[in-house]
Amino acid sequence: MSEKLKRGRASKVDLLPPNIKTQLAMMLRDKQYSQAEILEEINDLIRDCGLPETALLSKTGLNRYASRMEKMGAKIRQSREIAEIWTKQFGEAPQSDIGKMLMEIVKNIAFETSLGMSEDGSADPKSIALLSAAVQRLEQAEKSEF
User: Fold this and answer.
1) Residues 113 and 140 grouped into a single domain
2) At the top level of its lineage, which domain of life is listed (predicted)?
C-alpha cells in the first residue's frame, strides 16, 4: 500500500496579503523585535486591512513560521558558506567554478530523483520527460558556458 503525498492546508501566514507578509518577514529578520511585539503589530495590520478575526495569528502559529524561516535562512547561509569555501579552493575564476559545481549538484539531484522514482514505482511518463528535459538543458548550458 503506497502512501499518498498531501499538500496540506495553507497556513494563516501563507494566506496573508503580500504587504503584511513582507512586513512580517522584515520584522523577523530585524532582531530588535520580540515575537510578542511582532505578533501584536501583525495582528494590528490584519485588523486594519479588514480581514476577519480568524485571520489573526496565534503565538504558536507565528513561532512555527519563524522557526521555518530560520531553518530556511540557516540552509541558505550554509549553502553560501560552502560555495565560498569551494570558490576559495578553485582559485582565480570563482564564477565559472560555482557554475560547474552547481551543474554537478543538479546532475546529482536528477540522478537521485530518477533512482527514487524507479525504486518506488512513481516513474510516470510526464515526470520522466521533465527530468530528461532538465538534464538536456543542463548539458546544453554546461557546453555553452564552459
Assistant:
1) yes
2) Bacteria
Q: Is 118 helix (H, G, I), strand (E, B) or coil?
A: helix
What residues make up the domain containing 111? 92-146
Boundary (domain end) residue, out of 53, 75, 90? 90
DSSP state of 122: -
* 132 and 80 fall within a common domain: no
Same-domain status, 68 and 101:
no
Which contacts of 66-74 are long-range, i.e. CB under 8 A and separated by 24 or more positions?
66/28, 66/35, 69/25, 69/28
Grid cell of 89 as nine digits: 579552493
H helices of 91-124, in order, are 94-120
List pLDDT tens digits, range 5-63. 555 677 898 889 999 999 999 999 888 999 999 999 999 999 999 999 999 999 999 99
How much of the chain is helix, strand and coil, in % rounded to 5?
75, 0, 25
Tell me the C-alpha distance between 125 and 127, whole Å: 6
Q: What is the pTM of this model?
A: 0.54
How many Å from the N-terminal Cα to the C-terminal Cα in the chain?
46
Q: Are residues 53 and 120 in the same domain?
A: no
